Each structure stands twice: as C-alpha cells, then as structure tokens.
Amino acid sequence: MNKLINLVLTAALWRNYKFMILSVFVLIVCVFVIGVMHADYVQWAQYQLAQDNASIPLSVGWSFIIKYVVYMLAICTCFYANKWVNNKKAYEKSQAGDENSVLKKVIASATFKPFSEKSTESEGNLSNKPVAKHIKPNAKLDIFANIRTKQTLRTQADIVIDKKPTK
What we know:
By secondary structure, the protein is mostly helical. Helices cover 72% and strands 0% of the residues. It has 2 domains: 2-98, no CATH class; 102-163, no CATH class. Helix 1 runs antiparallel to helix 2.
C-alpha cells in the first residue's frame, strides 16, 4: 500500500513540478561538471608549474573568478527560467478561465447590486453607504455571509468586558 501511495504522490508532484525538477537537476549537473572541469584545470596548472614550463601562461586566480561567475549565471538562469514558466502557466490558466472560480463568485456576489437600486442612487451616495446592506449573499458560496449581515461585530474581549461586573 505504501508503494502505491508513493507512486501516486510522485506522479502528482511530477505532473505539477516537472519543469522545476528538471531545471534543478540540470543546475546540479552543471555545477558538478563545472567543478570537475575547474579541478582538472587546477591540476593541469600544478603539473605545468612542476615541469617548470614557463611558456604556458597560467591564470589560476582568474579560473576561480570565472568558475563562480558561471555558477551565478547558472543559478540565475535556473531561477528566471522557472519564473518564466510559472508566469506562462498562470497566463494560460487565466486565459482558459481556470482561475479560482469560488473567489470569482464571492467577488461577484459582493459587488452585485439590484438594477433598481443602481438607478435611484447617485454616485456620491454609493461610496458612503456600506455594501453589506445591499448584499443578499448565498451562504453556500460565501462563507462570510452570516458575518456581513450582522449590525455590529464583537470580539471576545468585548464579551469578557460585558460579563465583568462593574464596581
């Protein structure tokens, strides 16, 4: 049973985070390859110095600078590639209409006003009146419907203060 759960979770993670997993794997491989190449260069430079071969210019210091600059470029490339792919997925979802539909319904119910009330009120009065008086929210869609219909909201501190006897 554990193997089945592991397989299902792995498949779900792979489906959602495939690009990120692959890009991080490629980044790790690049860092490893760059490290091996740099170690080979440093070993070759030490061999050349041991041979007293002055005809080959050695720049071991620059090799470390180049190595770390390439590391930073690889990390930045991985970060921005993941950011670009995530933005592209979010844009495609928004174009397809797969956004949070519950959130859209809540926003639509909060901004809904009957047509007759819209035509009778002026623009100045709309900003002064609270929206909660005009809303008839659906409790199935809006979990805060019962809070919006209350006249005043009281905290636990208010309740404790009211219960405390006055002297």
